[in-house]
Structures are given as C-alpha cells and as structure tokens.
Specification:
It is built from ten helices and 14 strands.
Amino acid sequence: MENKISNSERAQVLTEALPYIKKYTGKVVVVKYGGNAMINEKLKQQVMEDIVLLWLIGVKVVLVHGGGPEINELMTKLGKKAEFVDGLRVTDKETVDIVQMVLAGKVNKTLVNLLEAKGGKAMGISGMDGRLIEAEMKDERLGYVGKITNINIEPVTDLLEKGYIPVVSTIGCDIDGNVYNINGDTAAAYVAGAINAERLIMMTDITGILRDRDDPSTLIPVVTIEEAERLKEEGVISGGMIPKVDCCIEAISEGVSNVIIMDGRVPHSILMELLTDEGAGTMVMP
C-alpha cells in the first residue's frame, strides 16, 4: 500500500525539520558508506537522494566509501581467493591493484554519476589524489594494508569551497609510491577529524550498539567514550563492532563533535538522523 501524505502533513514535516536545517547549514557532515546499503540498488538510490537533499539545503557533505563486496566479486572473477587475518583483508601486490581499480574506478565513479543524476554536483577523488591519505604498512602479514600516517585535507576542502560533494575512495599511498588498502571506517574517522566535521555518520548493517545483539529493541541511543570502553570490557561491544566503535572514538579524539553508528538498510536513515527529533542508531559522544 502506498503511503499517501497530505499537503498539510508534508508542510508540517518541513517546518519540524527547520531547526535542524538551520543547525547543519554550512556545516560539514562526513558520511561513511558501505556494506548492504551499497549492494541494494534501491537503497543506494535513496542514500544518494538524501545526500543531494542535504547538499541542496547547504550542508557540506563528504562521502567516504568502501567497496568490499565489489572487490570480492572481481577477485572471484579473476580466480583469486580472498584471505583474511584478524578480520583484515590480506592484500598482496596483485590484490592492491584490484582494490585500486574497483574503489578509485568503478565504485567511485558510479557514486559520482548517481549523485549527479539526482541533481547534485559531485567530484570523485581517491586517497592518493593530492596525497590526501598518506599511509605505511600496518603489518607485514597483511601486505599492502595501510596504517594512516597523515591526512592532507586540502583536496577535500577545495572541492567543498567550490560547491562539490567530494566522494572519497579509501586507498592511500606512501612517499615511495606504494598503494595501500585502507579500512573505510578508519579513513572516514581521520578525514572527519582533519576537517573538524560537525558529525560523522557510519552507515553499517546493524541497528547500532545493542545491549542484546539479538534484540533490536535494546538499542543504546547515546554512549559516551567512557561508557563505550566499559561496554567493550563487559563484552556488550564485541566482534566487528569493536573496530567500528574504536573508529568513533578516534574521530572524536581528532575533533569531530559526535559520531552516529546507524543502520544503512533503513530507507532515508540519514535524513531521519539529521533532520528529525527521532534520530537513528547510536550516537557516540565525548
């Protein structure tokens, strides 16, 4: 059944959004985009619509993206098996070439194209452009997996000043020209910190931080850094959620006001988070 909304209800929604529009106009919001919201075509369209809408009301949106599923897909086509150590992709020279092709090429340009099709003005860059993300080898066992050593944020600020939505693929480089695969969440945290973003939104495949991981109704709406550390000790934050929360803490320590971990599978979750009373997901704050 189609959800019909009357004009007066529509006007009511817009007036309720007004204080939030005023709050975020002219501010920088970094969106980390990946996972299921990226695979599902309908969701992808909605995320791009949300970003263009925010851009149109004057929010400076920076889109940082990964592309794990697409990397796996191309590796399979090329007969290469994905290997993981402690949840991180082992990246040899051939794999890093694939990562560069997929992230800086196919995925990045597809997102730019979609944003433009929705009426936005977007420009795609990789972490190698303007040496945006400088990195070094994280661990010999992982090969070309990078640990960020420095962020040169000027390429992003230049694009924002010119009125573009920067779309950043998470590959880095070092002084010798080596290319590194960078964890998307970590890259988003560093970029958001370097630009003093008002907010970092981490789109994931889960509702947020749950007290009981099998029960969405146990969502913790707000958590401080101290509480997050305690929840890690208690085992409430565990598994794949630990690196996500660590990235949130990293972003806040780098100067981001607050970070949202939210479910990218929910339609228009970005707008719900930024422009309504309800919000979405878990907010991590100082």
